[in-house]
Write a structure and sequence with these properties.
The protein is an alpha+beta fold and 395 residues long. 54% of the residues lie in helices and 11% in strands. An eight-stranded mixed β-sheet has the order 1-7-6-5-2-3-4-8, sandwiched between helices. The chain is globular, with a radius of gyration of 22 Å. The termini are far apart.
Protein backbone atom coordinates (compact mmCIF):
# COMPACT_ATOMS: atom_id res chain seq x y z
CA UNK A 1 0.00 0.00 0.00
CA UNK A 2 1.23 3.48 -0.85
CA UNK A 3 -0.16 6.65 0.72
CA UNK A 4 0.66 10.31 0.25
CA UNK A 5 1.57 12.25 3.43
CA UNK A 6 1.04 16.02 3.36
CA UNK A 7 1.38 17.08 7.01
CA UNK A 8 -2.36 17.54 7.31
CA UNK A 9 -4.74 15.77 9.69
CA UNK A 10 -3.96 12.06 9.99
CA UNK A 11 -1.19 12.38 7.38
CA UNK A 12 0.94 14.58 9.64
CA UNK A 13 4.44 13.08 9.78
CA UNK A 14 4.66 13.36 13.56
CA UNK A 15 1.69 11.06 14.18
CA UNK A 16 2.57 8.63 11.36
CA UNK A 17 6.17 8.19 12.55
CA UNK A 18 5.12 7.60 16.15
CA UNK A 19 2.72 4.88 14.97
CA UNK A 20 5.43 3.30 12.83
CA UNK A 21 7.76 3.06 15.84
CA UNK A 22 5.37 0.89 17.88
CA UNK A 23 5.84 -2.53 16.29
CA UNK A 24 9.17 -1.95 14.57
CA UNK A 25 12.07 -4.28 15.25
CA UNK A 26 14.58 -2.00 13.54
CA UNK A 27 14.42 1.70 12.70
CA UNK A 28 16.57 3.48 10.13
CA UNK A 29 16.51 7.24 9.64
CA UNK A 30 18.58 9.29 7.19
CA UNK A 31 17.96 13.05 6.98
CA UNK A 32 19.74 16.09 5.66
CA UNK A 33 19.50 17.76 9.07
CA UNK A 34 17.80 17.40 12.42
CA UNK A 35 16.75 19.76 15.18
CA UNK A 36 15.59 19.47 18.77
CA UNK A 37 12.13 20.60 17.68
CA UNK A 38 11.83 17.41 15.60
CA UNK A 39 13.46 15.15 18.17
CA UNK A 40 10.97 16.30 20.81
CA UNK A 41 8.08 15.11 18.62
CA UNK A 42 9.34 11.50 18.45
CA UNK A 43 11.32 11.40 21.70
CA UNK A 44 8.91 9.18 23.64
CA UNK A 45 8.79 6.64 20.78
CA UNK A 46 12.57 6.75 20.47
CA UNK A 47 13.08 6.17 24.19
CA UNK A 48 10.59 3.30 24.19
CA UNK A 49 12.38 1.64 21.27
CA UNK A 50 15.73 1.92 23.04
CA UNK A 51 14.32 0.53 26.29
CA UNK A 52 12.84 -2.43 24.39
CA UNK A 53 16.27 -3.24 22.94
CA UNK A 54 15.42 -2.36 19.35
CA UNK A 55 18.12 -1.17 16.98
CA UNK A 56 17.76 2.43 15.89
CA UNK A 57 20.19 3.95 13.40
CA UNK A 58 20.22 7.63 12.46
CA UNK A 59 22.40 9.25 9.82
CA UNK A 60 22.33 13.02 9.44
CA UNK A 61 24.21 15.65 7.49
CA UNK A 62 26.22 18.68 8.56
CA UNK A 63 25.98 20.79 5.41
CA UNK A 64 25.65 24.53 6.12
CA UNK A 65 25.46 23.84 9.85
CA UNK A 66 21.71 23.17 9.77
CA UNK A 67 21.81 20.22 12.17
CA UNK A 68 21.64 21.45 15.76
CA UNK A 69 24.51 20.27 17.99
CA UNK A 70 22.02 20.03 20.86
CA UNK A 71 20.08 17.44 18.85
CA UNK A 72 23.27 15.47 18.20
CA UNK A 73 24.14 15.54 21.91
CA UNK A 74 20.66 14.46 22.96
CA UNK A 75 20.57 11.45 20.63
CA UNK A 76 24.21 10.51 21.27
CA UNK A 77 23.48 10.48 25.01
CA UNK A 78 20.36 8.34 24.55
CA UNK A 79 22.27 5.85 22.40
CA UNK A 80 25.22 5.39 24.80
CA UNK A 81 25.55 1.78 25.93
CA UNK A 82 22.95 0.50 23.46
CA UNK A 83 23.11 -1.15 20.05
CA UNK A 84 21.76 2.03 18.47
CA UNK A 85 23.93 4.18 16.20
CA UNK A 86 24.15 7.88 15.43
CA UNK A 87 26.25 8.66 12.36
CA UNK A 88 27.36 11.75 10.46
CA UNK A 89 27.51 11.72 6.68
CA UNK A 90 30.96 12.39 5.27
CA UNK A 91 31.18 13.25 1.61
CA UNK A 92 32.73 16.59 0.82
CA UNK A 93 31.89 16.38 -2.90
CA UNK A 94 28.10 16.16 -2.62
CA UNK A 95 25.41 17.49 -0.32
CA UNK A 96 23.77 14.93 1.98
CA UNK A 97 20.07 15.38 1.28
CA UNK A 98 17.97 12.20 1.87
CA UNK A 99 14.77 12.10 3.92
CA UNK A 100 14.27 8.41 4.65
CA UNK A 101 12.43 6.76 7.53
CA UNK A 102 12.41 2.93 7.45
CA UNK A 103 10.72 0.56 9.91
CA UNK A 104 11.28 -3.18 9.72
CA UNK A 105 8.51 -5.16 11.38
CA UNK A 106 7.44 -8.78 11.76
CA UNK A 107 6.33 -9.70 8.26
CA UNK A 108 6.18 -6.13 6.94
CA UNK A 109 8.17 -3.07 6.02
CA UNK A 110 7.15 0.58 6.30
CA UNK A 111 9.15 3.27 4.52
CA UNK A 112 8.55 7.01 4.34
CA UNK A 113 10.46 8.95 1.69
CA UNK A 114 9.88 12.58 0.81
CA UNK A 115 10.79 16.13 1.67
CA UNK A 116 10.65 16.15 5.49
CA UNK A 117 13.74 16.48 7.64
CA UNK A 118 13.78 15.61 11.34
CA UNK A 119 12.63 19.04 12.52
CA UNK A 120 9.49 20.44 14.08
CA UNK A 121 8.46 22.04 10.81
CA UNK A 122 9.28 18.95 8.77
CA UNK A 123 7.29 16.57 10.97
CA UNK A 124 4.45 18.81 11.89
CA UNK A 125 3.77 22.02 10.09
CA UNK A 126 5.71 22.64 6.90
CA UNK A 127 4.13 22.10 3.51
CA UNK A 128 5.80 18.70 2.99
CA UNK A 129 5.12 15.85 0.60
CA UNK A 130 6.14 12.27 1.39
CA UNK A 131 5.23 8.77 0.25
CA UNK A 132 4.39 6.13 2.87
CA UNK A 133 5.02 2.59 1.64
CA UNK A 134 3.68 -0.45 3.51
CA UNK A 135 4.52 -3.87 2.14
CA UNK A 136 6.43 -7.10 2.46
CA UNK A 137 9.97 -7.13 3.89
CA UNK A 138 11.20 -9.28 1.01
CA UNK A 139 10.59 -7.62 -2.34
CA UNK A 140 12.56 -5.65 -4.92
CA UNK A 141 11.79 -2.34 -3.24
CA UNK A 142 12.95 -3.60 0.17
CA UNK A 143 16.14 -4.89 -1.46
CA UNK A 144 16.76 -1.48 -3.02
CA UNK A 145 16.25 0.23 0.33
CA UNK A 146 18.78 -2.12 1.95
CA UNK A 147 21.31 -1.47 -0.80
CA UNK A 148 20.85 2.29 -0.47
CA UNK A 149 21.21 2.08 3.31
CA UNK A 150 24.49 0.17 2.96
CA UNK A 151 25.71 2.95 0.67
CA UNK A 152 24.79 5.56 3.29
CA UNK A 153 26.61 3.58 5.99
CA UNK A 154 29.77 3.40 3.90
CA UNK A 155 29.74 7.18 3.52
CA UNK A 156 29.27 7.99 7.21
CA UNK A 157 30.99 7.66 10.58
CA UNK A 158 29.69 6.76 14.03
CA UNK A 159 29.46 9.93 16.09
CA UNK A 160 31.88 10.45 18.98
CA UNK A 161 31.92 13.13 21.64
CA UNK A 162 34.94 14.71 19.93
CA UNK A 163 33.05 14.91 16.62
CA UNK A 164 30.19 16.74 18.32
CA UNK A 165 32.60 19.27 19.84
CA UNK A 166 34.22 19.84 16.46
CA UNK A 167 30.83 20.29 14.86
CA UNK A 168 29.84 22.85 17.49
CA UNK A 169 32.71 25.04 16.33
CA UNK A 170 31.55 24.78 12.72
CA UNK A 171 27.92 25.41 13.73
CA UNK A 172 28.86 28.57 15.63
CA UNK A 173 30.93 29.78 12.71
CA UNK A 174 27.81 29.59 10.52
CA UNK A 175 25.70 31.79 12.83
CA UNK A 176 26.65 35.13 11.26
CA UNK A 177 25.60 33.93 7.81
CA UNK A 178 22.26 32.65 9.12
CA UNK A 179 21.28 36.06 10.48
CA UNK A 180 20.76 37.54 7.03
CA UNK A 181 19.12 34.55 5.34
CA UNK A 182 15.73 35.46 3.88
CA UNK A 183 13.18 32.67 3.45
CA UNK A 184 11.64 33.79 0.16
CA UNK A 185 11.51 36.75 -2.26
CA UNK A 186 9.54 39.70 -0.94
CA UNK A 187 9.99 38.76 2.72
CA UNK A 188 13.06 40.90 3.33
CA UNK A 189 12.31 43.81 5.62
CA UNK A 190 15.29 46.19 5.46
CA UNK A 191 14.40 47.95 8.69
CA UNK A 192 14.17 44.61 10.47
CA UNK A 193 17.43 43.29 9.04
CA UNK A 194 19.35 46.46 9.86
CA UNK A 195 18.27 46.37 13.50
CA UNK A 196 18.81 42.66 14.04
CA UNK A 197 22.20 43.60 15.47
CA UNK A 198 20.40 44.67 18.65
CA UNK A 199 18.94 41.20 19.07
CA UNK A 200 22.17 39.59 17.91
CA UNK A 201 24.15 41.21 20.72
CA UNK A 202 21.62 39.98 23.25
CA UNK A 203 21.55 36.50 21.70
CA UNK A 204 25.32 36.12 21.77
CA UNK A 205 25.68 37.44 25.32
CA UNK A 206 22.62 36.07 27.07
CA UNK A 207 20.72 33.57 24.93
CA UNK A 208 22.00 30.35 26.45
CA UNK A 209 21.71 31.76 29.98
CA UNK A 210 18.03 32.50 29.79
CA UNK A 211 15.74 31.65 26.95
CA UNK A 212 16.77 28.06 26.12
CA UNK A 213 16.22 26.77 29.66
CA UNK A 214 13.10 28.92 29.84
CA UNK A 215 11.89 27.44 26.53
CA UNK A 216 12.27 23.85 27.75
CA UNK A 217 10.39 24.70 30.94
CA UNK A 218 7.67 26.56 29.05
CA UNK A 219 7.38 23.81 26.44
CA UNK A 220 6.47 21.31 29.15
CA UNK A 221 3.90 23.73 30.50
CA UNK A 222 2.24 24.25 27.14
CA UNK A 223 2.09 20.50 26.53
CA UNK A 224 0.14 20.21 29.78
CA UNK A 225 -2.02 23.18 28.80
CA UNK A 226 -2.90 21.44 25.54
CA UNK A 227 -3.87 18.28 27.42
CA UNK A 228 -6.17 20.27 29.73
CA UNK A 229 -7.72 22.20 26.83
CA UNK A 230 -8.38 18.96 24.96
CA UNK A 231 -10.20 17.58 28.01
CA UNK A 232 -12.16 20.82 28.35
CA UNK A 233 -13.17 20.74 24.68
CA UNK A 234 -14.61 17.22 25.07
CA UNK A 235 -16.85 18.10 28.03
CA UNK A 236 -20.54 17.70 27.21
CA UNK A 237 -21.60 20.10 29.94
CA UNK A 238 -19.31 22.88 31.13
CA UNK A 239 -20.09 24.17 34.60
CA UNK A 240 -18.68 27.08 36.55
CA UNK A 241 -16.25 24.95 38.55
CA UNK A 242 -14.83 23.19 35.47
CA UNK A 243 -14.02 26.51 33.84
CA UNK A 244 -12.66 28.06 37.05
CA UNK A 245 -10.34 25.07 37.57
CA UNK A 246 -9.03 25.26 34.00
CA UNK A 247 -8.35 28.98 34.13
CA UNK A 248 -6.71 28.73 37.53
CA UNK A 249 -4.17 26.26 36.13
CA UNK A 250 -3.61 28.24 32.95
CA UNK A 251 -3.21 31.79 34.22
CA UNK A 252 -2.81 31.96 38.00
CA UNK A 253 0.40 32.80 39.84
CA UNK A 254 3.94 31.59 39.32
CA UNK A 255 2.75 28.01 38.72
CA UNK A 256 0.57 29.06 35.76
CA UNK A 257 1.00 27.06 32.57
CA UNK A 258 0.72 30.00 30.17
CA UNK A 259 3.20 32.85 29.99
CA UNK A 260 0.64 35.67 29.97
CA UNK A 261 -0.35 36.87 33.41
CA UNK A 262 -2.84 39.27 34.94
CA UNK A 263 -5.87 37.52 33.48
CA UNK A 264 -6.90 35.98 36.78
CA UNK A 265 -7.65 39.48 38.11
CA UNK A 266 -10.37 39.68 35.44
CA UNK A 267 -12.09 36.46 36.53
CA UNK A 268 -15.19 38.25 37.80
CA UNK A 269 -15.83 39.37 34.22
CA UNK A 270 -15.45 36.01 32.49
CA UNK A 271 -16.13 33.37 35.14
CA UNK A 272 -19.61 32.59 33.77
CA UNK A 273 -18.38 32.39 30.16
CA UNK A 274 -17.17 28.80 30.20
CA UNK A 275 -19.31 27.74 27.22
CA UNK A 276 -18.04 30.63 25.11
CA UNK A 277 -14.44 29.82 26.06
CA UNK A 278 -15.02 26.17 25.12
CA UNK A 279 -16.24 27.39 21.73
CA UNK A 280 -13.03 29.42 21.38
CA UNK A 281 -10.81 26.46 22.29
CA UNK A 282 -12.69 24.10 19.95
CA UNK A 283 -12.53 26.57 17.07
CA UNK A 284 -8.76 26.93 17.43
CA UNK A 285 -8.16 23.22 17.99
CA UNK A 286 -10.20 22.25 14.93
CA UNK A 287 -8.65 24.94 12.68
CA UNK A 288 -5.06 25.00 13.92
CA UNK A 289 -3.67 24.69 10.39
CA UNK A 290 -5.49 27.79 9.16
CA UNK A 291 -3.66 30.93 8.12
CA UNK A 292 -2.90 33.26 11.08
CA UNK A 293 -5.14 36.02 9.70
CA UNK A 294 -8.13 33.70 9.27
CA UNK A 295 -7.92 32.03 12.68
CA UNK A 296 -7.20 35.27 14.55
CA UNK A 297 -10.31 36.89 13.07
CA UNK A 298 -12.41 33.84 13.98
CA UNK A 299 -11.16 33.97 17.54
CA UNK A 300 -11.54 37.75 17.70
CA UNK A 301 -15.24 37.43 16.97
CA UNK A 302 -15.69 34.82 19.71
CA UNK A 303 -13.86 36.69 22.49
CA UNK A 304 -16.16 39.67 22.01
CA UNK A 305 -18.59 37.60 24.10
CA UNK A 306 -15.98 36.87 26.82
CA UNK A 307 -15.32 40.04 28.86
CA UNK A 308 -11.81 40.23 30.29
CA UNK A 309 -10.35 37.88 27.68
CA UNK A 310 -8.13 39.67 25.17
CA UNK A 311 -5.76 38.95 22.32
CA UNK A 312 -3.10 37.62 24.69
CA UNK A 313 -5.39 34.77 25.75
CA UNK A 314 -6.65 34.19 22.21
CA UNK A 315 -3.09 33.80 20.93
CA UNK A 316 -2.06 31.71 23.95
CA UNK A 317 -4.66 29.15 22.85
CA UNK A 318 -3.44 29.44 19.26
CA UNK A 319 0.22 28.82 20.08
CA UNK A 320 -0.75 25.98 22.41
CA UNK A 321 -2.20 24.13 19.43
CA UNK A 322 0.29 25.29 16.79
CA UNK A 323 3.64 26.70 17.97
CA UNK A 324 5.02 26.77 14.43
CA UNK A 325 2.70 29.28 12.77
CA UNK A 326 1.17 31.36 15.56
CA UNK A 327 2.80 33.87 17.91
CA UNK A 328 1.70 35.16 21.31
CA UNK A 329 0.51 38.76 21.07
CA UNK A 330 1.33 40.50 24.35
CA UNK A 331 3.57 43.31 25.59
CA UNK A 332 6.58 41.03 26.15
CA UNK A 333 6.70 40.17 22.43
CA UNK A 334 5.09 43.22 20.83
CA UNK A 335 7.16 45.88 22.62
CA UNK A 336 10.63 44.58 21.63
CA UNK A 337 9.42 43.82 18.11
CA UNK A 338 8.02 47.35 17.80
CA UNK A 339 11.37 48.64 19.05
CA UNK A 340 13.13 46.72 16.27
CA UNK A 341 10.85 47.33 13.27
CA UNK A 342 9.21 50.65 14.15
CA UNK A 343 6.39 51.63 11.81
CA UNK A 344 6.40 48.20 10.15
CA UNK A 345 4.01 47.01 12.85
CA UNK A 346 0.90 48.57 14.39
CA UNK A 347 1.58 50.15 17.78
CA UNK A 348 -1.83 49.63 19.41
CA UNK A 349 -2.30 45.92 20.15
CA UNK A 350 -5.96 46.37 21.11
CA UNK A 351 -6.82 47.45 17.58
CA UNK A 352 -5.16 44.50 15.82
CA UNK A 353 -7.05 42.82 12.99
CA UNK A 354 -6.30 39.46 11.45
CA UNK A 355 -4.19 41.19 8.83
CA UNK A 356 -2.16 42.98 11.53
CA UNK A 357 -1.66 39.72 13.40
CA UNK A 358 -0.50 37.94 10.23
CA UNK A 359 2.12 40.68 9.75
CA UNK A 360 3.13 40.32 13.40
CA UNK A 361 3.60 36.55 12.93
CA UNK A 362 5.57 37.14 9.71
CA UNK A 363 8.02 39.42 11.53
CA UNK A 364 8.48 37.02 14.42
CA UNK A 365 9.00 34.19 11.94
CA UNK A 366 11.77 36.29 10.41
CA UNK A 367 13.42 36.69 13.82
CA UNK A 368 12.98 32.96 14.48
CA UNK A 369 14.60 31.98 11.19
CA UNK A 370 17.40 34.54 11.52
CA UNK A 371 18.50 33.12 14.86
CA UNK A 372 17.77 29.45 14.19
CA UNK A 373 15.05 29.26 16.85
CA UNK A 374 12.90 26.13 16.85
CA UNK A 375 9.41 27.57 16.73
CA UNK A 376 7.30 30.58 17.66
CA UNK A 377 7.30 29.58 21.31
CA UNK A 378 11.07 29.72 21.50
CA UNK A 379 10.96 33.02 19.60
CA UNK A 380 8.52 34.32 22.22
CA UNK A 381 10.87 33.25 25.02
CA UNK A 382 13.75 34.90 23.18
CA UNK A 383 11.88 38.20 22.77
CA UNK A 384 10.70 38.12 26.37
CA UNK A 385 14.31 37.69 27.50
CA UNK A 386 15.31 40.64 25.33
CA UNK A 387 12.37 42.63 26.72
CA UNK A 388 13.60 42.09 30.28
CA UNK A 389 17.22 42.73 29.29
CA UNK A 390 16.46 45.97 27.45
CA UNK A 391 14.48 47.29 30.42
CA UNK A 392 17.32 46.66 32.85
CA UNK A 393 15.60 43.81 34.68
CA UNK A 394 17.49 40.94 33.05
CA UNK A 395 19.60 38.92 35.47
Amino acid sequence: MIKLLLNEGDTRLESVLNKCFKDAKEVRIAVSFMKLSGLILIRSSLVAAIQEGKKVSIITGTDYGKTEPEALEAIWTMFLGTKCELRLAENEKTMFNPKLYSFSKEGSLEVIIGSANLSGGGLNNNNECSVHYQGKPKCDFASEINTYWDKLLSGSRVVTEEMIEDYKTFFNEQKPTKYEVIRKPGSKDLNLVVKLDKLRKYYDNHGDDFYRDFFIYRGDNYAEAKRLLDQFCEMDHVNHQDFATLMHKLVTGKARLWGSNGLWRQKAKYEDKGIAFQKLAKTIRDNCSAEPEELFDKGRRIIRDIPGVGFNVLTEVMITYNPYDYAILNNASHTPLKHIVGTHIKGNVASFTGKDYARFCQLIQHVRESFGLKDMMEADCFLEGYYRYSNGTFN
